[in-house]
Design brief:
By secondary structure, the chain is an alpha+beta fold. It contains 16 helices and 22 strands. It folds into 3 domains: 214 residues, FAD/NAD(P)-binding domain (3-Layer(bba) Sandwich), CATH 3.50.50.60; 137 residues, Alpha-Beta Complex (Polyamine Oxidase, Chain A, domain 2); 97 residues, Guanine Nucleotide Dissociation Inhibitor, domain 1. Helix 1 links the parallel strand 2 and strand 3. The radius of gyration is 23 Å and the shape is globular. Bound molecules: flavin-adenine dinucleotide.
């Protein structure tokens, strides 16, 4: 792990009373709120939804029997190289005891193929060599046909080089250029590419290569991940909400931020929930449409380049999360989580009663099981009945024991709020800093100086946003943690610490 201290600073707290408004209560906003509040800033955290957590959020629902249960935006994998996320979560659980390792994370293919990621060495290039050697979908003859130069780019990650060379290409074009046989491509890459919610023909190959470096070739902690043993509302959001309140953060849920305007003395006025709040610091940690709406209505955020880069952001296709309470038990030997490929739009199957206590209790009482199906980057032309039929048929293909099973209860979420990483979008993507003093951005779509993605990118961006706002005051920054920022064969570049953090 690389530990990066982004700026000098030893003071534990700000020396004068200061206020901050954080717009958005997802992981990015909460991370920024924690760092600012710990350093003595008086924080208002405004979240539009009635619960914290955004896309990793959770809320209480009820089954038809009246029994309460905790529902979420869907299964989440906590990878071991999510160092900044871990640093945030250690504030509420020092040992991260709510997480449990999964033994494996197999990928199931349409013809009964299985690809396992357990037991691989963690060091590059041995991880790549071992996976290539043991995968049943790649023979020696296939390997001789592979485009070695293109494949080498997976071990050559360096931000400037990788995005410079590959950002204009689509992930699909890059994967085609590798010349892997179709089965190997499907098993090794298609699930991986889909995990970022973007269809591969509309996603930057530079972004895909960064993710490949972050999750696999440059990741010293391996591909195996942990899961939450308890629903997120009890393991994460309840305790984080209490932690924020303990720091004096004014957490306002069900509160929409609409506009930011210049106030007196270099401070800002933030309109939230029909009220105007003065703030020395503002972090916009919103969804893409949320950010675009706020910036669009905030005429004092008048830097043309900044406005253009925010307008240039986009959302990717919708995704679906379908949780089913079924009247049959899980077949013995099944894994808690599998990725799937090649059968309809199904991307993964989670068996909640195998890892999460609430579902385990329900299954033990009823003799049933709790199954969650995900589909990412869904074709926007598919309607709900078509998606349901497609997902159910794919479940039956992979887990035939569920054919004819009765569905006792279900929750079907179709949402579209994940960011697009379109080819050619990297250079103009907004970063954490903005041309407007006192305003910073955070979120999993923000351009970052370190390789990271999804939850980890959200938290790292929140930490960086708080550090940036505190930088002029000599306050101790939150350390930023990263896997190596260069791949095994990545070029060495001379950078100052400051330029490395942009
Ligand atoms: C189904 C699914 C599965 C996933 N699985 C994984 C996984 O396995 N591993 C992983 O690392 N990541 C996973 N992710 C991604 C992860 O959830 C996100 O990367 C992360 O939660 C993003 O956090 P964020 O704070 O950047 O954005 P968000 O969580 O989107 O937070 C933005 C917040 O801003 C709020 N908001 C918007 N407009 C306004 C406004 N005007 N005023 C006030 N508030 C506003 C929104 O309500 C939202 O709460 C998954 C996501 C989904 C949807």
């Amino acid at each position: 792990m690389e530990l990066i201290l982004p700026q000098p600073g030893t003071r534990e707290k700000v020396s004068s009373p200061q206020t901050a408004v954080i717009a958005g209560g997802g992981l990015a906003g909460v991370a920024a709120a924690v760092v600012l509040a710990e350093r003595g800033v008086s924080v208002v955290l405004a979240e539009r939804e009635p619960f914290l957590g955004g896309r990793a959020g959770a809320w209480t629902d009820r089954l038809a029997t009246g029994e309460p249960f905790e529902m979420e935006r869907g299964f989440h994998a906590f990878f071991r190289q999510y160092y900044n996320l871990q640093a945030l979560l250690r504030r509420i659980d020092g040992e991260l005891g709510f997480l449990e390792p999964l033994e494996d994370y197999p990928i199931l293919g349409p013809g009964g193929q299985v690809e396992s990621f357990s037991g691989l060495p963690n060091k590059p290039p041995w991880n790549v060599i071992a996976l290539t050697r043991r995968t049943p979908t790649l023979g020696l003859r296939d390997l001789l046909r592979v485009n070695g130069l293109a494949a080498l780019s997976m071990l050559r990650y360096e931000r400037g080089w990788t995005y410079g060379r590959y950002d204009d290409m689509t992930a699909g074009e890059y994967l085609d250029s590798l010349r892997f046989p179709p089965d190997a491509r499907r098993m090794l890459f298609d699930v991986f590419a889909h995990s970022f919610f973007n269809p591969e023909n509309a996603m930057s190959a530079g972004e895909l290569l960064m993710m490949f470096h972050f999750y696999f070739s440059g990741n010293p902690d391996g591909l195996i991940f942990d899961v939450s043993k308890r629903p997120f509302s009890t393991s994460i959001w309840g305790p984080l909400g209490n932690y924020l309140s303990g720091l004096g953060v004014d957490v306002r849920t069900g509160c929409t931020v609409s506009r930011v305007a210049k106030g007196a003395d270099r401070s800002w006025k933030v309109e939230l929930g029909g009220e105007s709040v003065d703030a020395d610091h503002v972090v916009l940690a919103l969804t893409v449409p949320g950010l675009q709406a706020v910036v669009g209505d905030s005429l004092d955020l008048d830097d043309a380049g900044f406005r253009r880069s925010v307008e240039g952001l986009a959302l990717t296709n919708p995704f679906v999360v379908w949780r089913l309470w079924v009247d049959r038990p899980t077949k013995p030997g099944r894994q808690p989580f599998v990725g799937t490929t090649g059968v309809g739009c199904l991307d993964n199957i989670s068996l909640y009663d195998l890892f999460e206590d609430e579902s385990r209790d329900w299954a033990a009482r009823t003799g049933g099981s709790v199954v969650e199906l995900h589909a990412y980057a869904v074709d926007p032309g598919m309607d709900e009945p078509a998606i349901r039929a497609d997902l159910l048929s794919a479940l039956h293909t992979f887990y035939p024991e569920y054919v004819g099973a009765g569905v006792i209860e279900e929750r079907f979420l179709i949402r579209r709020d994940c960011p697009a990483f379109a080819p050619g979008s990297h250079a103009d993507r907004p970063g954490v800093t903005t041309p407007h003093e006192g305003i910073a951005l955070a979120g999993d779509f923000v351009r970052l100086p370190i390789p990271s993605a999804l939850m980890e990118r959200a938290v790292a961006s929140g930490f960086l946003a708080a550090n940036h706002l505190l930088a002029p005051q000599g306050v101790r920054p939150e350390p930023i943690r990263s896997i190596p920022r260069r791949g095994l064969f990545g070029r060495r570049v001379q950078e100052t610490e400051a330029s490395r953090m942009r």
